Amino acid sequence: MNPSDRVFLQATVELAERGRFTCAPNPTVGCLIVRQGLIIGRGFHALAGADHAEVNAIKDAGGDVAGSTVYVSLEPCAFVGRTPACAQTLIDVDVARVVIAAEDPHPQVAGAGIKMLRAAGIEVSLLTQAAALEAIAGYSCRIYNNRPLVRIKSASSIDGGTALASGESQWITGDAARADVQYWRARSDAIITGVNSVLADDPQLNVRAADYIDALQPLRVVLDTHIRTPESAQLVQDGAATLIVHDADTSVPRYLENYDNVELLGLSGGPRDLETVLTHLADSGCNEVLVEAGAQVCGSFAAAALWDEWLCYVAPKWLGAGHRGLADFDVATLDATPVGKILDMKKIGDDMRIRFVAAGG
């Protein structure tokens, strides 16, 4: 290992983030090509079906990369899909060394890219970086667990209320916190909510911030047992993709036949069958999903232990007696209560954002 290896690898992870909002269902990947200590090519994967990071870096270097060292945030792929195998591409251009920050969990890769390179006489170093693993956490979750990474978002008062006793909830947190949510929406492949939130707030659940104008819009998913989502709902009317998950025995309202943007998923267990909902989203190529819903839906994910990260926005205000809570589920004893581990805390405007995972996560 050269002293500069980890520095260059960290740079590939940062470069990979430039494809964060557009490359799904593929993982983010960044690549640097270095010759005699100088970076001669940079590339990242921007869009599924388009050139991979290695190919873009080779193009950026002008094509002549023989004898160079390639730094890549994720193991080069070893199979031909919509694009050629990147491991073979690196062999063809005669690079001398490849340094990798994370092994690809895809069953068609999973070390096969490394083996191809070594079999061709290329020196390969796998220097696993925590940041590289975190960057592909959603992709890895889909591969290993057959479900997307589930991130729950909530906005509450300091006494744990998400709405007044009357149901009034707009707005508890300030403009800065709501702007911050736009980032998490932009990196999510789907946003899950419940029909009660649709009826109460008529949300759009889309990405509107100018900072993420190029982001792919997330699929909106409504958990709606009896299909009470009204025809007037913005999720129906705006033309963007929406999935309504309902009980298989529920009759589908005729008005939904007029909207090509609305897909229906009838399940024998209805939307209560969260595992099947998440499996369907994984099969649709979702790496990360964001749950923006009321206490009942958030509580259902928490009770089923089907969440990976919680974004808890807390406003320095009190909603008082009878307020509506953060998550609605039963806990028998204090010893049985779910315990979280805080990842970070950040002041966002006048509010606080706490990111935490389940203990052991």
Give me some keywords for this one.
361 residues; alpha/beta; Cytidine Deaminase, domain 2; Dihydrofolate Reductase, subunit A; 9-stranded mixed beta sheet; globular
Number of strands: 14
Measured on Cα atoms, how large is the radius of gyration? 23 Å
**Mean pLDDT, all residues:** 91
The overall number of domains is 2
Sequence of strands across the biggest β-sheet:
10-9-8-7-11-6-12-14-13
Q: Helix fraction?
A: 25-40%
Query: For this structure, what is the CATH homologous superfamily of the largest domain?
Result: Dihydrofolate Reductase, subunit A
Beta-strand fraction estimate: 15-25%
Q: Which second-level CATH architecture of the largest domain applies?
A: 3-Layer(aba) Sandwich
Supply the helix-strand structural class.
alpha/beta
How would you characterize this protein structure?
There is one protein chain. With 361 residues, this protein is α/β, with parallel strands linked by helices. It folds into 2 domains: 5-135, Cytidine Deaminase, domain 2; 144-358, Dihydrofolate Reductase, subunit A (3-Layer(aba) Sandwich), CATH 3.40.430. It has 11 helices and 14 strands. The chain has helices at 5-16, 53-60, 86-92, 112-119, 130-135, 137-145, 175-186, 195-201, 234-237, 274-283, 295-303; strands at 30-35, 38-44, 69-72, 97-100, 123-126, 149-157, 190-194, 219-223, 242-247, 262-267, 288-292, 309-315, 340-348, 351-358. The strands form 2 sheets. It has a 9-stranded mixed β-sheet with strand order 10-9-8-7-11-6-12-14-13, sandwiched between helices. Strand 1 (30-35) and strand 2 (38-44) form a beta hairpin. The longest helix has 12 residues, at 5-16. The radius of gyration is 23 Å and the shape is globular.
